[in-house]
Design goal:
Helices cover 10% and strands 48% of the residues. The strands form 2 sheets. Strands 3, 4, 5, 6, 8, 9, 12 and 13 form an 8-stranded mixed sheet that branches. The protein has one domain (22-154). Strand 12 and strand 13 form a beta hairpin. The protein is mostly beta strands.
Length: 155
Amino acid sequence: MRLVLVALLACTALIAQKYTGTLPPKPDLPYLVHANNLVPTEAGEAREEGKKDDIIYVIAGAASPVKTPLASPIFLLQADKLQPEKFELYRLEVKNGRREVTFSRKKRKTARPIRLSIHPLGESVYRLEVDETLENGEYSISPGGSNQVFCFAVF
């Protein structure tokens, strides 16, 4: 019984430790973790376009200047106004020199979010991990219900 109590206390101490790594320089901007470096994602606003039975969110430019070789990237976020639990990750299609994601009002092919795991690391610092292997291409992390986007590319 004492051994279980000691193990439980040790686990509690580990969980209570504060994050001591590099903090993101700006709040509310996800940073890609590349070893000991933090690379800021491309922040922007998606423009909404309606098309018959679809809603298309358009981001200017054919490619993000922010690139990662990691197929399962990890992000670090210091949250101020944004809520990490509401973040969604989408693959973007490149069409006509711009990036876009399409949501259908009908049940045909529509964009589905890619799973993210969110881990609190300390006071307002979060680690966001992609739960799937991403194919090469353009991607965007966006807070649900917002046109704010944070883009990057996997190569």
